[in-house]
Write a structure and sequence with these properties.
33% strand; 5 helices; alpha+beta; nine-stranded mixed sheet; five-stranded mixed sheet
């Protein structure tokens, strides 16, 4: 069985344990000769822009509503048409992301989504598109996604597994995507990382951000030297008060993976088939915050 097919099967089994219903939406996809899932549809962004998307709280109210306890709203009734809308929006987003049409991508998501997913910020969609082009995160390929549910703040939510990158290695991301919908248009609004599923033999190395001004540090005495492994997980802990976006580069300064850590959080940058060699893990928010990662003989 090809390894990517094995990953897809594992993804379905793992994501079924993370969701309210345990059902996986089958997204319309095809595969290239290497077995990499592709969207198979042209990039067709909606005419509306995320600047017009509804917000989760009313700016016109003199008193802000109380913040609900985060969690699924078990009493909410989900519109039966919502799953089809979300599936179509996800396929369109993957198609535009794969095509590198960053202006289209920026028009299909809210600013908060790009900040939480890849650390790209900007006042306008043009600025956010420029930030995505500069980052060059590679294609986005969705492997599996759960049916839509309603979160306690009124937004919709789906759990999914997707792969991002230019090829070997690929970054594997298990995440919860929040979304807002209005008049038949869906905007993805935020990404929150979930525990990555067991995608194979894994080697984990930790790093930490002590505060917002200090450079990152490896959490082990290996000084960033690790053996080769089918799955490499860089487990980051952010003890600062602001979000930090961590980028892994190869020897040619090409980005291989991106991990955004909110304040006081932790998460994993998971890479599949990371070749032996020398890499740099960088925190652009702190001058000189770069860690050397050596895989195998380096």
């Amino acid at each position: 069985m090809p390894w990517r097919l094995t990953l897809a099967v594992l993804a379905i089994l793992c994501l079924a344990n993370m969701t309210p219903s345990g059902i996986i939406l089958a997204l319309p996809m095809r595969a290239d000769r290497a077995g990499t899932p592709l969207s198979g549809v042209p990039c067709q962004p909606p005419a509306a822009t995320p600047e017009a998307a509804p917000t989760t709280s009313s700016r016109d109210s003199p008193i802000a509503p109380p913040t609900p306890t985060p969690g699924f709203d078990r009493q909410a009734v989900v519109d039966p048409l919502l799953d089809g809308m979300i599936s179509a929006a996800a396929v369109e987003l993957a198609a535009c992301w794969e095509a590198g049409d960053w202006q289209a991508v920026a028009s299909m998501v809210t600013p908060r989504f790009l900040e939480t997913a890849v650390g790209v910020a900007g006042v306008t969609s043009e600025e956010r598109a420029q930030g995505l082009a500069a980052l060059d995160p590679g294609a986005l390929r969705i492997a599996s996604m759960t049916p839509a549910a309603i979160w306690s703040d009124g937004r919709g939510v789906v759990d999914l597994l997707y792969f991002r990158g230019h090829g070997d290695p690929l970054q594997a991301i298990a995440a919860r995507w929040f979304f807002v919908a209005e008049r038949g248009v869906v905007w993805f609004d935020e990404e929150s990382l979930l525990l990555p599923p067991p995608l194979g033999d894994r080697l984990t190395i930790g790093f930490s951000i002590a505060d917002d001004a200090q450079p990152m540090q490896w959490a082990s005495q290996s000084a960033g030297h690790i053996a080769s492994s089918p799955v490499v997980a860089l487990h980051g802990v952010n003890r600062g008060r602001t979000p930090h976006t961590i980028i892994l580069h190869d020897a040619h300064a090409r980005p291989l993976g991106v991990l955004t850590l909110p304040a006081g959080s932790e998460g994993d940058l998971v890479l599949l088939d990371l070749p032996a060699g020398a890499y740099q893990l960088q925190d652009p928010a702190v001058v000189g915050s770069t860690l050397e990662l050596v895989v195998g003989d380096g």
